Fold this sequence. Notes:
It is built from eight helices and 21 strands. The chain is of the alpha+beta class. Strands 2, 4, 5, 6, 7 and 10 form a six-stranded antiparallel sheet that branches. It has a five-stranded antiparallel sheet with strand order 1-11-3-9-8, with no helix packed on it. The chain has a five-stranded mixed sheet with strand order 13-19-18-15-16. It is elongated and about 110 Å long.
Amino acid sequence: xxxxxxxxxxxxxxxxxxxxxxxxxxxxxxxxxxxxxxxxxxxxxxxxxxxxxxxxxxxxxxxxxxxxxxxxxxxxxxxxxxxxxxxxxxxxxxxxxxxxxxxxxxxxxxxxxxxxxxxxxxxxxxxxxxxxxxxxxxxxxxxxxxxxxxxxxxxxxxxxxxxxxxxxxxxxxxxxxxxxxxxxxxxxxxxxxxxxxxxxxxxxxxxxxxxxxxxxxxxxxxxxxxxxxxxxxxxxxxxxxxxxxxxxxxxxxxxxxxxxxxxxxxxxxxxxxxxxxxxxxxxxxxxxxxxxxxxxxxxxxxxxxxxxxxxxxxxxxxxxxxxxxxxxxxxxxxxxxxxxxxxxxxxxxxxxxxxxxxxxxxxxxxxxxxxxxxxxxxxxxxxxxxxxxxxxxxxxxxxxxxxxxxxxxxxxxxxxxxxxxxxxxxxxxxxxxxxxxxxxxxxxxxxxxxxxxxxxxxxxxxxxxxxxxxxxxxxxxxxxxxxxxxxxxxxxxxxxxxxxxxxxxxxxxxxxxxxxxxxxxxxxxxxxxxxxxxxxxxxxxxxxxxxxxxxx
Length: 552
């Protein structure tokens, strides 16, 4: 990173900020510069365009150096690269050294730019402006100023210094602000400063402004505006440009405070399948944040708990939940940086049916495959008709497994009588796992099913009840799978779209193929046939009834 450490003082007294409410207000006028595209401005002082030498002062010697360069007969057009020991002749940034550059410095001196104290009678004077270089191929440019602020006795919150970063050709257009277009980038008052912490830093004396990669722009205009509640107040602000540096490795925004990391989940022992449905009341909530952060657990009728994350950032809470839904809130606070983050966690204490329903919905949501119709590698999500069939099979197995133990209802499809004392929880989970693992066979899907079965097994003590439940559930699951084998869901049907009126065709914009054309032939779960409650066909296309409906 190559700093440009050339300085000069801009000192001026109150002018009016047009955006703030004031008792008195003065209107600023501006000198508009000719627009130009992004140019090579290596020959212009990036810290302060008027400082030719550079020596942190705007004096006659700067003018003389430009004149001597012109009189030396050296080409008007400046070469692409400036020698490190050369002056900054290109005051206006047009890649030429001409009399206009000298005139700009003369006018600045005449306006009192180099004076230590400036009157406020002409707010449009260039003494209240700094032309700086912006734009870089990559990374971030950093501009630094020193501000010496002296507020007169009796200064109010309305008094202060406003700094704008504007487009030189349109000073009302701000390049950076605090979220209000046209507003100041930085505001200083007797009680403090206002700025965006993402790209501005202020330590009470040095103002650091980070500049992004402005597209097609090489010049920015810093407007320094003093505002006052009393026109007779004698506030004094001395502004000294310090440096203008670039760093290609810095990402934007450079000063943004990173979000405090915070992960929250139930422990694998509490919730093996990770669906936030638990079968037992005692739970463990855990996660990770910044090492040493304070972590609080609130909600769900629990007394507030606060612990400190360990050296790796890990934390853990123990809690108890009754049947039903419970909302927790985990709050992590990094006291060193004052960062804080809150993450909610909803836990459902339910039975095995709710647990498996949540597991199946998670699998269905994540399921996908690829198709080359109508284009290569089209992602296909779970087709709703197939989801309905698969979920019906899983829940049919759960019903018959539970009924095998409790014998409360007529069996749906598989009539099994479980031995006395058989665990209904294990039976239901084993039946669901048996069916689900044949319908969804990817490794990650099987892992969820096995975890859900493990959660059920962990909720029941070892012994005959668990063993019998496992056997009964697997028997029922096998029965449901056998019953639905050959039900038509896997049949291959080639659908050929027609071209006559009333026949289905692929449609804009995606022209997707027909969905599961074999489905009319799939065996229903409750009706004897698919035609049992079929609605009558629509009216003929050439009928008066069709014409009347179409013309509504």
